[in-house]
From TrEMBL:
One of its GO terms (molecular function) is acyltransferase activity, transferring groups other than amino-acyl groups. The keyword Transmembrane does not apply. The lineage of its organism: Bacteria, Pseudomonadati, Caldisericota/Cryosericota group, Candidatus Cryosericota, Candidatus Cryosericia. The keyword Transferase applies. This is GNAT family N-acetyltransferase. Keywords: Transferase. Residues 4-174 form the N-acetyltransferase domain. Signal peptide: none annotated. CDD domains: NAT_SF. It comes from Candidatus Cryosericum septentrionale.
């Protein structure tokens, strides 16, 4: 077996960062296809904005794991690299050190002088550790705890590891942003599908839109940032679902809450 190589994501392998998230059988699924296309667009936009922001682990030419991050600076000037996602999809690869190698690559990079932090090293590394694991797979939370991260900021998904013991990071609270509602949205379900960092999220949004349309007997219109950039930007350039022009709070991942929300509309 050839050794695992960790390579930065650039324009040439941005597609690998997108397709690695899709499960078995995804190639023949049009929704996955659209979701990975949206992620490819997101990766290209992010490369332009941030430079290297993600790494893919390869076995030969096969992408077998990924990690992606962005910079954050708190009001006191503490600069932190925030990992949005880490993912080793295939069961046959779990527990072989791939996740640890990907994390080490980000830690090493951010401990060197870096353009994200005015040419200085980051003060620490943070991670969004939401539960996206498959059955029997290690959770992101358990993985980060194992690697010395601790919870911070009252956000159950957010973890932090300072690079120096006295560093305190005050994370910026996640902003609540609402897409713009247009007159056409008043009598329909509008699904706004942006260039998303997560193809799972794209699929859930689309599937939730279909579900809501059927449940409420309303027409569903999808506005995809890749195929209809103007329509997407006219809605404020944000992803989400509008029902009769009002933003939906829950999706199919929280089925019961979604049904409750729909019955209250
Ligand atoms: C977490 C994850 C990245 C770990 O990847 P991996 O390549 O299997 O990790 P490693 O092989 O480097 O293992 C890391 C450590 O955890 C241990 N470990 C691995 N699987 C484990 C499991 N199921 N339970 C407990 N410990 C486990 C390993 O033994 C290793 O310990 P060591 O450093 O003492 O040797 C991977 O399992 C994953 O993708 N999980 C889902 C993450 C997720 O939900 N992502 C989306 C939201 S961010």
């Amino acid at each position: 077996m050839s050794a695992t190589r960790i390579l930065p994501v650039g324009v040439r392998n941005a597609g690998d960062l997108a397709t690695i998230c899709a499960g078995e059988g995804a190639k023949s699924d049009p929704l996955w296809e659209r979701a990975t296309k949206a992620k490819r667009q997101w990766a290209r936009d992010r490369l332009t904005e941030l430079g290297t922001f993600a790494w893919v682990a390869y076995n030969g030419a096969d992408p077998i794991g990924m990690i992606q991050c962005h910079p954050d600076r708190d009001p006191m000037g503490v600069g932190v690299a925030v990992i949005d996602c880490i993912w080793v999809p295939k069961k046959s690869r779990w527990g072989r050190g791939i996740g640890s190698k990907l994390l080490a690559e980000v830690e090493t990079t951010m401990q060197r002088q870096h353009r994200w932090f005015e040419g200085k090293p980051a003060d620490g590394i943070a991670a969004m550790a939401f539960h996206g694991e498959a059955e029997g797979q290690q959770s992101a939370e358990s993985f980060y705890l194992h690697h010395g991260f601790v919870r911070v900021g009252g956000d159950p998904d957010l973890m932090f590891k300072p690079f120096q013991p006295d560093i305190v990071w005050t994370p910026t609270p996640r902003a609540v942003v609402t897409p713009t509602s247009l007159p056409d949205d008043q009598a329909r379900v509008t699904v706004l599908l942006g260039p998303l960092s997560c193809p799972f999220q794209y699929r859930i949004l689309s599937q939730t839109g279909t579900y809501v349309g059927e449940k409420l007997g309303m027409t569903v219109t999808e506005v995809d940032a890749v195929s209809d950039p103007e329509g997407y930007l006219a809605h404020g350039g944000l992803s989400g679902i509008l029902v009769g022009g009002r933003q939906l709070r829950y999706d199919l991942l929280q089925h019961e809450k979604l049904d409750k929300e729909l019955s209250g509309l």
